[in-house]
Amino acid sequence: MVDKTNKTGAPPGTLVYFGDKQTDRVKLSLIEFNETDFIEKEFYDLSECLDHVDTKMVRWINVDGIHNVELIEAIGKRFGIHSLTLEDIVNTNQRPKFEDYDNYVVAIMKMLYFDNELQSEQLSVVLFDGMVVSFQEAHGGDAFDLIRNRIRLGKGRVRRMGADYLAYALIDAVVDCYFGILEKIGDRIEILEEDLIEEPTKETMRQLHNMKREMIFLRKAVWPMRELINNMERSETELIKPTTDIYLRDVHDHTIRVIDTVETYRDLLSGMMDIYLSSVSNKMNEVMKVLTIITTIFVPVTFIAGVYGMNFEFMPEIHSKWGHVWGYAFAWVIMLAMMISMVVYFKRKKWL
Amino acid sequence: MVDKTNKTGAPPGTLVYFGDKQTDRVKLSLIEFNETDFIEKEFYDLSECLDHVDTKMVRWINVDGIHNVELIEAIGKRFGIHSLTLEDIVNTNQRPKFEDYDNYVVAIMKMLYFDNELQSEQLSVVLFDGMVVSFQEAHGGDAFDLIRNRIRLGKGRVRRMGADYLAYALIDAVVDCYFGILEKIGDRIEILEEDLIEEPTKETMRQLHNMKREMIFLRKAVWPMRELINNMERSETELIKPTTDIYLRDVHDHTIRVIDTVETYRDLLSGMMDIYLSSVSNKMNEVMKVLTIITTIFVPVTFIAGVYGMNFEFMPEIHSKWGHVWGYAFAWVIMLAMMISMVVYFKRKKWL
Amino acid sequence: MVDKTNKTGAPPGTLVYFGDKQTDRVKLSLIEFNETDFIEKEFYDLSECLDHVDTKMVRWINVDGIHNVELIEAIGKRFGIHSLTLEDIVNTNQRPKFEDYDNYVVAIMKMLYFDNELQSEQLSVVLFDGMVVSFQEAHGGDAFDLIRNRIRLGKGRVRRMGADYLAYALIDAVVDCYFGILEKIGDRIEILEEDLIEEPTKETMRQLHNMKREMIFLRKAVWPMRELINNMERSETELIKPTTDIYLRDVHDHTIRVIDTVETYRDLLSGMMDIYLSSVSNKMNEVMKVLTIITTIFVPVTFIAGVYGMNFEFMPEIHSKWGHVWGYAFAWVIMLAMMISMVVYFKRKKWL
Amino acid sequence: MVDKTNKTGAPPGTLVYFGDKQTDRVKLSLIEFNETDFIEKEFYDLSECLDHVDTKMVRWINVDGIHNVELIEAIGKRFGIHSLTLEDIVNTNQRPKFEDYDNYVVAIMKMLYFDNELQSEQLSVVLFDGMVVSFQEAHGGDAFDLIRNRIRLGKGRVRRMGADYLAYALIDAVVDCYFGILEKIGDRIEILEEDLIEEPTKETMRQLHNMKREMIFLRKAVWPMRELINNMERSETELIKPTTDIYLRDVHDHTIRVIDTVETYRDLLSGMMDIYLSSVSNKMNEVMKVLTIITTIFVPVTFIAGVYGMNFEFMPEIHSKWGHVWGYAFAWVIMLAMMISMVVYFKRKKWL
Amino acid sequence: MVDKTNKTGAPPGTLVYFGDKQTDRVKLSLIEFNETDFIEKEFYDLSECLDHVDTKMVRWINVDGIHNVELIEAIGKRFGIHSLTLEDIVNTNQRPKFEDYDNYVVAIMKMLYFDNELQSEQLSVVLFDGMVVSFQEAHGGDAFDLIRNRIRLGKGRVRRMGADYLAYALIDAVVDCYFGILEKIGDRIEILEEDLIEEPTKETMRQLHNMKREMIFLRKAVWPMRELINNMERSETELIKPTTDIYLRDVHDHTIRVIDTVETYRDLLSGMMDIYLSSVSNKMNEVMKVLTIITTIFVPVTFIAGVYGMNFEFMPEIHSKWGHVWGYAFAWVIMLAMMISMVVYFKRKKWL
Predict the structure, then answer these.
(1) Which of C307, D77, D153, E131 could bond E59 through an S-S bridge, CB–CB 3.0 to 4.6 Å?
(2) What is the pLDDT of residues B111-135, one digit of tens each?
(3) Contact check, Cβ <8 Å, D157/E1
(4) Which residues of chain A does B299 touch, with a Cβ-Cβ cutoff of 8 Å?
């Protein structure tokens, strides 16, 4: 939740990794393709990987782990990536953004997973002329697997078009995953809404609060995506060809749809919180009303009983002849009459 | 309510239909007209339909059902519609938008129905040179019937003007239907407001909550319309002629009026929710006050009765000669005096 | 409150009147003037009116009633007013707006009256070269009387300047009337504020709610005026001469002042609603506290009375010799001591 | 608080004074200076004043009172001030604004005083070529005295620079006075905040409400200042020389600082209101809890006393031999045990 | 918290220091460097310092204390700093801003420290051609130490690049320190959140209120930084070379990240305040419910006891033979049955 450990005072462009998983070796997976051919290899060593690169094909190097700062630096030096960009790539607290440099453009994004709670993984896509280098946190999940499959099978446009379309496809995959998360959250909102109507409990409220928190963080990840795509569309780089523009417009549209839905969910959750609070308060009030009514019914008749418990030496209801016989019954009649009339009155006023 | 089933990972431009009604055959209705002539036919087959098209007239092909993905793809191929556009047309979760391509422009909108609850149907209007192709969900209702009638009868400008005016007329019909919905909602708000003043119940609150929810979804459908019309007005396409601009300005205006009314209703509903909560709380407080006052009146006199129920061997009010005769009456006088003075006090303080 | 009866599906440019008053004949009042001369006539027939028009003077035709759709259409045909403009003029639900056409510009506004509740009347001002045609609902009130008088008396600039200044003067009259309404509302807010401090009742709250509602509708009428004047200032029409621009700047300024005041009143009313709710809740709490304190004082002493009402055969306070004489007094001492100490304690804690 | 008496319907450019103080004669104070010389005179007559004007020096005429409408009109005619400007100068409800005309520019501002409550005075500064004419309400206070002194003493830049710098200095004096007011309000907020923590009373709340109201009005006066300075900076008038631009940037900055502080205070006051309401509610709840606990402790033991007050002929605790001796003590033991265990239970639960 | 002591009425450009620490001598530390050489010296005298300046190297003069107004004025005169800039440098209430003058540009910022409460120190960085002069409050802390070290050690780019990069590095250091503060605040929010779930107390609420206040002030310091960097990027000054632009873009990005986090924390704190209030209210309601239930259970049975304490001469339950033997037991059975059935009822209704 909180941006942990920032490298205050370190010179700009210093690579510092902030994530948790630090032990594994970093895997480099190289995919090279054109409309007819397709090569896929995996390496654990940069120079070995670079030996296999064929500059006539579209190349995609995926770096599966960003904790190996030396490797990232080596990649940066080899491909001419600015040190500020490298810093952004390894800083997992980075805000999603798009930047264009002379020889490349870079998009840094948050891939989100929703598995009981929202988790985020940083993804960076660097687009060179004819090459895409993507960086993801170790064990980063399968967000790109679908695109890899499409390339392998030659399905869709990706094999026919250039590196810029590949970069677009990767970004599109990230935005698409947001829809999946929104769907899961939407389902949970519907379940919560039913709980709310049937039997709101403390647990409902805790879940509402958690959902609200998750919407705050989802929003923080999603809003900058709009700007990212905007900047990408408006960028004057020649790396992105006009034929890809139409696809960017499409992903831009999806981003706005995601944002719209996030805002709608926030509105819904606020409304549900209000409903919860008012229904809890109503329920409590109902309980207190019933309890108070019971007390209210018995207090006056207790008074009557108290009156005939007084020890005065002559009380006509008790000590007269009539009282001797009917007194007790008379007292009960009065007391029952009082109780019944109160119940009737409360019923009529719809208090019971 | 929730955007269901998104096709995460499918290559962009893949047509996937998300709606429910999947069984029926798709009807293609072709209307061809110019100022003097008018032809109307219905087909269940694309090529048959295309055989009847007369390129000298203004043509309107309405596709009544978007679940037949193959047909949509065939139409797209035949008329040169980009696969991203086709994807948007069949994706019923699409956000309203306007886009211009080289050979056509497309407006995707939400037609709304209010029949106890808000329901939406996706409508897409594709404008080519001299031709309009519109797509609607199966059994999509009669939104376009009025325009069809106007063409049949030669009423209004639609027969005299070109395809761009026809496209405008279709969009105008969608915006017009929002007014009908707002009117129905407005009526329900007025009824609710009267309920609120006379006798607010739990049902009132449930309805208020539902109305608020509906306003959230109405808003989500209506706000993008403004942008849609804006983009349409600012578009540099030559498909929309300057003579139609003045009509776009008019529908733009209507859209803003719809948005204004939606915002006004939201404000009204918020105010009503506050009124409801405060009136429920006041009512409950009134009940508790009356109950507490009853208890408060009887507790002190019960104490007095308790005092004269004590068993002390000499209590002057009881055991003196005077007490023997007047004691009981004296006790009643005191007790009644206490009760009456409390009632008077509470009345004066306006607590009763 | 609610936009009633919309003509869903009617072809654009169809004139449909939505107001209530339909019976009266429509009066056309023609005023012609230049710096030296002045002619004023009234007609119930358009062609008769047009016969009297002298194109060398500035002409002002005021149409007093817009329910006669045929007349409006005739006027429109005669002066070349676009059917969309005519539709806006007779549609009393129209949002205030300014539009420029080739041969005329039109401003549609809401005149407001505040007579216990807010009422609105639609006013339209169409400016041609050398002529102003204004439309108002029948019995529309005297908003323009003051300008008519100024023309009659030759007071102010209106006689010296052209038709564009006359149009400005009419718009200025509408904005000026908002100040009068704000003043009345301001007075009522002050009265309400005093009520709130002295003796808030349910009626106060009902009035607060009504005022809030009226502010919502006032706002809906006033906000578009800003845009109207803005569009008028930025319009490139040649009908409005540069000498009038300075006056538009002034009315623009007034509009912003009106909007500022409306927003200030909304803030004030929100604050007052909060004060009301908290003061009602405090008052209720005070009542409950006093009632509860009374009960709390008597319950313990009732217990003491109960103790000495027990029938044990030997209770020293009762059956001993000392008890025989002092027991009753002793019980009273204890009970009074308890009551007094509780009262003192509550007083010290400032609960009483 | 409320915009009083507006001149609905009067022709634009009519001078109507709305303030209260109407009796005094209007003083004209003339200051003429250049880098070396300095002349200061006071007049009660315009023509006399104009006789003394020396066009080679920078002239500053301060009009001390704007209720004498004839004088203002005479000044306007003499210096060529547009009647709309004159109208704004005497209309004390005017919104702060800047306007440029051909021969002069005018800034209308609100000087604020905070003396238990916020009071405002209208100040207008008209800048001509080489001359400043300023208008203030009668007895308008000493806002300009400091600048007068600086001119007299030849301190600061004001003597060296032209009329535009003088106009800037007057505007700067107005913005500076806002800081003084914010400081006073800040002090009161700090005092209120301490009251809130120590002992919140009804008075605290009344003061909070007043402060909130004052912030609403302060905001209404301060926000337009930003626009005023902005328009002044962007104005293309030649009356303001480029050397003065740097000073305008400075006063622009001050204005934003004032606005920031106003917004911060509003946030603080909102937070304090919430704290107040929750602390009042908590205090009340505490009182009710204590009262209810007292009742709750005595009700069960009263029941026990009631049991042994029953008149059954054989109750073992009473009529047995053991009961004869120990019964009473036994009853007390039970009752005390109940009371003590309840107190212990409530203490443990931290309810006491 | 409150902007103290403003110099109302003093001529613009007058230097007035508003801070507290006034006693110490002001230290001037001079650092001169180029890619190969590095000189560092400290002075307490301006002219002595200026004697040591070598115009062929990049010079950085850090003024450690701004209370010595004469010194600041001397520096300003020597380097040609405008008096308005000097005024801003010594005015510790200054809002963060960037301004460009002919011969220099200046950035005024707030360095923040979080040590139980938020404290701010003003930092000003003036960039000349080849020279940076920075001003900080006395004992201003070590914000710049890290940069000094980097220069000393020749680490990072700073030695290789010019004065503009040095100025950037100083600004970057300020923004970086905000991350440290946000991290500390984030930790405290997490602790508070746990407190809130486990055991919310009055202290929790006081801390929440304090955190909210601190966020208000943090926001006030951070928001203008965005504008500052924006203006710096858009500035047309030649003092900032294009090679530095890329670093400004980076710090711009960091600023937006800081602002995002501040807004997220505000949202979180608001949510926590709501949770706190609702949980306190729930806890109180639970207590009241239990107390009321106890009373409600004993009031009816006390009535039964009262009935059998009545003194009627013939009550069958007492005076009959059966009553003589079983009466007392019968009374207990009834009373226990009543109590048990009530407990069971309340349990079933989940009120207990």
Answers:
(1) E131
(2) 888 877 888 888 999 999 999 999 9
(3) no
(4) 299
Cβ proximity of A91 and A39 under 8 Å: no
First to last CA, chain D: 48
Q: Which residue in B has a C-alpha nearest to residue C320's C-alpha?
A: B313
> Which token pair is B274?
């506050």
Task: Give CA–CA dist A310/B303, Å, rounded.
Answer: 11
Looking at chain C, the whole-number percentage of residues with pLDDT higher than 90 is 31
Task: Determine the Cα–Cα distance for residues C318 and D301; give it in Å rounded to an integer.
Answer: 20
Q: In what order do the strands lie in the sheet with D58-64?
A: D38-43, D27-33, D58-64, D131-136, D117-128, D105-115, D97-100
What is the rounded distance in angstroms from the CA atom of residue E122 to the CA atom of residue E219?
Answer: 16
Minimal Cβ distance to B306: which of C11, C306, C315: C306
Q: Enter the DSSP assignment of E20.
A: S
Write out the E strands in B137-270.
Answer: none
**Looking at the predicted structure, is the pLDDT value of residue D6 above 50?**
no
Record the tokens describing residue B37, joined without a space.
């002539």
Select from E95, E295, E299 the Cβ nearest to the Cβ of D257: E95
CB spacing of A190 vs B1 below 8 angstroms: yes
Distance, in angstroms, between C297 CA and closest chain B CA? 9
Tell me the domains of chain A and their CATH numbers. Answer: 27-278 (3.30.460.20), 284-348 (1.20.58.340)
How far is B203 from chain C, CA to nearest CA, in Å?
A: 22
Cβ within 8 Å, pair A172-B12: yes
State the Cα–Cα distance between residues C303 and D305, nearest whole angstrom: 7
Contact D49, D43 (CB under 8 A): yes
Could you tell me the two tokens for B294? 């009853």
Q: What is the pLDDT of residue B22?
A: 60
List CB contacts of C264: < 8 A, sequence separation 6 or more: D216, D217, D220
- The CB density around residue D186, as the number of other CB atoms within 10 Å, is 18
Which distant-in-sequence residues (6+ apart) come within 8 Å of A198 by Cβ?
none
Averaged pLDDT, B208-223: 86
Compute the CA torsion angle D48, D51, D55, D57 (nearest 10 deg).
-60
**pLDDT tens digits along A12-35:** 667 777 666 566 788 889 999 988
Q: Which chains are adjacent to chain E, needing at least 3 Cβ pairs under 8 Å? A: A, D
C99's CB contacts (< 8 A; 6+ apart) are: B249, C85, C105, C106, C231
The pairs formed by E144-150 with CB atoms below 8 angstroms and a separation of 24 or more are E144/E62, E144/E170, E144/E173, E145/A9, E146/A8, E146/A9, E146/A10, E146/E173, E147/A9, E147/E173, E148/E31, E148/E40, E150/A11
- Name the residue in chain B with its Cα closest to that of A304: B302
Which residue of A3, A99, A216 is in closest CB contact with E182?
A: A3
Of residues D83, D49, D94, the one with CA closest to residue D220: D94
Pairwise CB contact (< 8 Å): B264 & C99: no
Q: Do the Cβ atoms of A256 and B301 come within 8 Å?
A: no
Q: State which H helix or E strand residue C293 sits in.
A: helix C242-308
Contacts of E293 (CB under 8 A, 6+ apart): A291, E346, E351, E352
Measure in Å the smallest separation between the Cα of E279 and chain D Cα atoms. 12
Of C277, C325, C331, which is closest to B310 when you measure between CB atoms? C331
Cβ neighbours of E220 in D, within 8 Å: 260, 264
Q: What is the ipTM of this complex?
A: 0.73
Read off the pLDDT of residues A110-164 as tens digits, 9 standing for 90 and up: 988 887 788 888 899 999 999 999 998 866 567 788 888 888 888 778 888 889 9
Q: Output the CA–CA distances (angstroms, integers) from residue C40 to B190, C149, D273, E87, in the order listed.
A: 45, 11, 61, 67
| Residue D3 predicted with pLDDT over 50 | no
pLDDT of residue C292: 92
pTM for this model (two decimals): 0.80
Taking the CA atoms of residue D135, residue D140, residue D142 and residue D145 in that order, the dihedral angle to the nearest 10 degrees is 20
The mean pLDDT of chain C is 86
